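The methods section describes the discrete structure representation at length, but only in general terms. What matters is that the chain and its backbone geometry are given together, residue for residue. Nothing conveys this as quickly as seeing an actual entry. For illustration, here is how one protein appears when written out as sequence plus structure tokens:
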Amino acid sequence: MLADAIGGVSRSRVKALITAGEARRDGRPLRDAAELVRAGYIYSVRIPPAVPAQPLPEAIPLAILYEDADLLVIDKPAGLVVHPAPGNAAGTLVNAVLAHAGEQLTGIGGEQRPGIVHRLDKETSGVMVVAKTDRAHQVLSAAFAARDLDRDYLALAWGLPAPVAGEIAGAIGRHPTDRKRMAVVTRGGKPALTRYATERSWAGACSLLRCRLATGRTHQIRVHLAEMGHPLIGDPVYLRRIPPAARLGTDKGGLPGPVRDALLAFPRQALHAATLGFRHPVSGVALSFSAPPPADFLRLVGLLDGNAE
């Protein structure tokens, strides 16, 4: 095994590096952590620099929708990573909450840290809840695991889904050849279900969808919509080619050139966690929070409204 050949690095660490796409054989990514090292090949592993064992507080502004002794609800901006990880050791939501809550954090799993109950991708904006106590973390984690909550997302997607409202079902797992992507798979994935409804559409070229998660898999909405043939506008991972709807000019019933160009140039996936509803982990009171899409998302909608045929 590769770990035996390297020496000084645990097998679990090497497996994690392979999963993260950091190991290569003759310049091509390795896929199988159990693969035997074979003579005649050149193997390489990039080991990211070590990061501090504990995240440090950082004075990063937070848009707080609600806070009490047990939890914190925020409107996460696009561009903010939720949790420290290789490549994003600082400047994360965890660092911001540590600075904001400070001594209010009573401890999660024996450590004084915020409890991350769920995540949003770095470039996805919207409503998130963070636990401040161990009890809140356990109860909220159980609610997410049991899907005993409401989560609505707004998404700008290419094309017009048919039907305009429905369900997308398909197990999600790692892409068989690109380990940094997720995919709808026939083996080894986890069941996933996304319900969607079309709220608006422009010239059949793009649509504003409201998506409700029945499960919570990594990149679920992005993967399901791409699998359906309606990838998110701006998605850097799942928008693999220029959509047919983006190739149409106004003479063919599509979007005007400047509008189409603005959609193609959007630098991130156009996805926003609009609503989050759950029961308070201590009082049991039903809570619901919402936040409007950020300015760049609304700017696209305004551009579409002003130029749609």
